[in-house]
Design goal:
Two copies of one chain form a homodimer. By secondary structure, chain A is of the alpha/beta class. The first copy, chain A, has eleven helices and nine strands. In chain A, helix 6 links the parallel strand 8 (144-148) and strand 9 (171-174). In chain A, helix 4 (74-87) runs parallel beside helix 5, helix 7 packs across helix 10 and helix 10 packs antiparallel against helix 11 (262-277). Chain A is elongated, with a radius of gyration of 21 Å. The two termini of chain A are 35 Å apart. The interface between A and B is large, with 84 and 84 residues.
Chain lengths: 280, 280
């Protein structure tokens, strides 16, 4: 029996919609309530079977929820967690699915009403697609979900949240919000920055001569510019630090190329291949 | 009726093997002769049906060929074209499938015996896989093949070569070897350099927190280090020029991030998305 009978999902896009679909297909919640600003997204989410009920009224939507999952863009999460918290019943747990964690956790911690708890989450299951039409019930299966409890988090809330993500098929990893942000700066935010720079550095007149290598390397640059601006803005220092590491590695490659140092070039490329091949 | 009755393929790896498979499945050549240094690759190529005959003897293998396709690594192409040319009959045409064209064309032009012609080709159909086991009869279908005739190329040779690649399903684009190398520096070689730097700049301890974005962006870094070293070495100046353009774009992103200039950051990300989305 899941602890969360009523689950409210604030923001029914790709991630929120997929969580709803996953819960309903698996029978993991008594009720799934979708909350959103745009009626069209709510309509699609309901048609897809991602939610039982849909509303544009946050206060009404979260009132009976045992768990509220805030799935809005990073730049909106703090406000949305606050308005959910102000309208939750005592004992409710709130989480989010934002790509950055420290700034959000810090801002949220200050304003929680008594009896309402918040623990951040981040499912590593992004996509250049978006919206409830792209939702999939199995989006989180075998994906990593990072949970970032702070020192005030209650053991039972953390356990419930870990069980919740596990029930959707995810592998749950626990770490601090700051550790999360440093890691994701390297594994997600820097790759996005580099892919964007690479796409834009490709002259328009040679785009016809791109093949799968260019397409793969630049794929994430198709992501929503405003969503990604918010992510970068929310993890500025860690991204700039990751960028320094990237600069050093690229400088070593450039130096080997400029000096026609074949041994060094081969060694760096071999080390890069080894690092890449360490991930399936 | 194809002009090329006997086709010799020197190097039966992914590309050479795929060309052989494509020719044989479509009945486009009377005989396909595979030539290689490694008996094991030749055995696999024959088992896969990529060649009718196989030999380690270049002179014997090319003796009766109407068309010789050199599919060896970039650093070996010049030598292999020369040894093929020295043993071809008069009227034979030689091409290659190397990822760089100018250096090869220049080196080859000097030493061709009378009656033997060379026109460079580059099928944009690489892969991080390699070897004849990975060969596919349809590898070139809807892919671009660039052909790079110099001013000495005969019209009928060029036409035959264009028809040859077209018969395998490819879209043929013609340009000079130098234009090719500048374009590919931007669309293929720079992305590889950047992907390698990105993979290597990712600390080992956060690899468990990578997702599809990192996997896509770094995929090409799995390519063979020695093959890619040869490609970079053979197109050094153009790669360094493309790298300057990349540096400028990345510097603009960095500046926007450092100065917390949200408008600029969003604009650059939007321009990058537009450039990326211009390619399907």
């Amino acid at each position: 029996m899941p602890r969360f009978n009523t689950v409210a999902i604030l923001g029914v896009g790709l991630i929120g919609g997929s969580i709803g679909l996953g819960l309903r297909r698996r029978g993991l919640a008594g009720r799934v309530i979708g909350i959103g600003h745009r009626k069209e997204s709510l309509r699609v989410a309901r048609e897809r079977g991602a939610v039982d009920e849909a509303t544009v009224d946050v206060a009404a939507g979260v009132a009976e929820a045992d768990l509220v999952i805030v799935c809005t863009p990073v730049g909106r999460i703090v406000d949305d967690v606050r308005s959910a918290a102000a309208n939750c019943r005592a004992g409710a747990l709130i989480t989010d699915v934002g790509s950055t964690k420290a700034e959000i956790a810090c801002a949220v911690a200050a304003g929680l009403p008594p009896g309402v708890a918040f623990i951040g989450s981040h499912p590593l299951a992004g996509s250049e697609r978006s919206g409830p039409a792209a939702a999939e019930a199995d989006l989180l299966v075998n994906r990593v979900v990072v949970v970032t409890p702070d020192e005030t988090a209650r053991v039972e809330d953390l356990k419930s949240l870990v069980d919740f993500w596990s029930s959707l098929g995810a592998r749950v990893v626990r770490m601090s919000a700051v550790e999360h942000d440093q890691a994701l700066a390297a594994t997600s935010h820097l790759p996005h920055l580099v892919a964007a720079a690479l796409a834009l550095a490709t002259p328009r007149e040679v785009l016809a001569l791109t093949a799968s290598g260019w397409a793969d390397t630049t794929r994430v640059a198709s992501g929503d510019p405003e969503l990604w601006r918010q992510i970068f803005a929310s993890n500025r220092a860690a991204v700039l630090t990751a960028l320094v590491r990237f600069d050093e590695t690229l400088a070593a490659l450039r130096a080997a190329l400029e000096r026609q140092n074949d041994d060094s070039l081969r060694q760096i490329l071999a080390a890069a291949k080894e690092r890449r091949d360490a991930v399936a």
